[in-house]
Sequence to fold (480 residues):
Amino acid sequence: MIDELIGTPHNRIPKGLADQDDGKRVDHMYADLALTSADTQKSREVYYIGDSKYYKSGHTLTSESIYKQYTYARNVIQWNVNLFAADDSQFDKKEKDARNEDKKHFSNIHLQDNSLTEGYDVIPNFFISAFVYKDHRYNDGENNIRKHTKNGEHCTKVSYQFPDRLFDRDTLFLSQYDVNFLYILFLYGRNKANEKSQWKQHVRKIFRDEIRAVIEHEFKIYAMRARLGVDGALYLRQHFYELNGRVFQPYGEERSMFFAYARPTKNMPDTQGQYDELSKYFVIQPCNMGQDPLNVLKSDIEQELKQPVTAPQWLTIHYLERDLKRGVLIGYYKNKEHLQWILGNNDKGSLIYNVRLKLKSDKEVRDGAHTEGFYKKKNIQFVILYTDGVETTGEYRVFHVKDMAGRVTEERMHATGYPLDVNGNYTFFRFDEEVSIGRLNIKALLTDIKYKHIEEFKKYVAYEPLFCTAEDVLKHRREL
Fold:
């Protein structure tokens, strides 16, 4: 009865999720907006898990009941991880078909960020107890559901392995609520779909808001985005041990350049050093659950974009002598906005450089366009970027190539926030960091490679990419 007014019918929940493989049966389960998502992002959801068996008002939760509820949650996490991470070759055709259907229905729910932070989304758990007013009131408005309290405090339990890691698999929150049993009978008996739907949405919002409040009492949460020129993904990989369970990527595809960082409120001084270090590489501001990081960090990002785009003071030095056959691309950027896009002011917060991609189906070949096979054959390991006035300023920037993307369509280019005109297909060279390969005579290098370009391609169009080797660059290196 209560499940009809709160949860999702079990026949619409995949086998093994509510009716679990170890024989446990979850009373109430439904998918709703993830706690860590912005309220405007309806595309990110999480499972809500509840139990209402045998509990009446004033009943003290037993350790067995609490343990079972945490087991429910751990089973749900494992089910979700298996759905997206397990090797499908171990399943027969019937199981594969069922898994593919589950992936479609639950594509918005990824409890583990297994691509980067390896953190886990927060799973809300709740107990429901019943109460009856002495005067048998069946409807008391907002008080038909209320927080179960003890000594004025909302009864919430927290289970964890590491007390300072919100986004850890073993950090679980369990809250308790009381419902007016006569009101439940009233709703169920009237059997009006509209009233049931309104109550369901009302109750779910209460659960979501209350557990958020509980978490924000235990943790101070921040939104952060890598500063220009910083590969946020690389930084997180390099500092995985310190940040595991403390940083998560919860904001979905449209906000994939943002991360959430949580600090336990009970020992803020102990994490001040970590916060200060993150602030050097990320724009970071407090961001409560439900807030949009795009809005929270907007002014800070706009302020950063107004600053001159300078190279880092200290750069990793790469010795070209180690492999003289390594490929080097010399590319042009048009203006400050283009450089900022290259340095991470794009939808992924990645360090990237775009070049034109030639396809077999192209009716017209654009200047400077080459096939994916051509780019791969050139074995590009470094990209040297210059802009107008280089003959006078001698300024350039060098980046180490991490990998190369495949085809990037016009639509995808626009979605990245590319600040220039878009025409045709492209591909990206993705960088891990800006580096130094020594002081170059960039004017002489450009002149030399342009001549070689004309020899190879029979022409040169202004600003198209140039290709050479580390050996060619070394001829124009003045010093390290």
Summary: DSSP finds 16 helices and 21 strands in the chain. Residues 193-218 form the longest helix (26 residues).
